[in-house]
Write a structure and sequence with these properties.
The protein is mainly alpha-helical. It has helices at about 15-25, 30-50, 65-75, 90-100, 115-129. It is built from five helices and no strands. The model has no long low-confidence stretch (mean pLDDT about 90).
């Protein structure tokens, strides 16, 4: 079982980190918190072991820059990418975030003005992975 003094917020899923930290700080580490903590550690380990190999279609203009974009995402909290319509920004940037190590403790989200567009993009990224 995990010990309260050894808690590292990066060792659990993002949604559980604050709840567990608060319980530890208040000295109220119940059996329920220990179970949640252990389950969160296990879920994170499963997610880290199942990260798919990320590849970029060569026919998209953004593909030539994805490695540099991935490094920028690792180094900076905010990265702004501008490019022509159809260059692959919408479908390839979530994959660059995954390659940069994001999404293991939580989600990589994307926004679109309409629900249908958002679902279509999510399906496209999932099928490419």
């Amino acid at each position: 079982m995990v010990k309260a003094r050894a808690f590292d917020p990066n060792s659990v899923m993002a949604r559980d980190a604050q709840v567990i930290a608060r319980a530890i700080n208040n000295g109220k580490v119940s059996g329920q918190i220990k179970t949640r903590w252990a389950g969160s550690v296990e879920q994170l380990a499963r997610r880290e072991s199942s990260v798919p190999l990320v590849s970029y279609p060569t026919e998209l203009p953004i593909s030539a820059h994805c490695e540099a974009i991935t490094e920028l995402i690792r180094a900076h909290q905010v990265v702004i990418v501008a490019g022509e319509t159809g260059s692959g920004k919408t479908t390839q940037l979530p994959k660059a975030c995954l390659a940069a190590g994001l999404g293991r403790r939580g989600m990589i989200g994307h926004t679109q003005p309409r629900r249908l567009a958002a679902r279509t993009v999510a399906q496209r990224v999932a099928s490419e992975l």
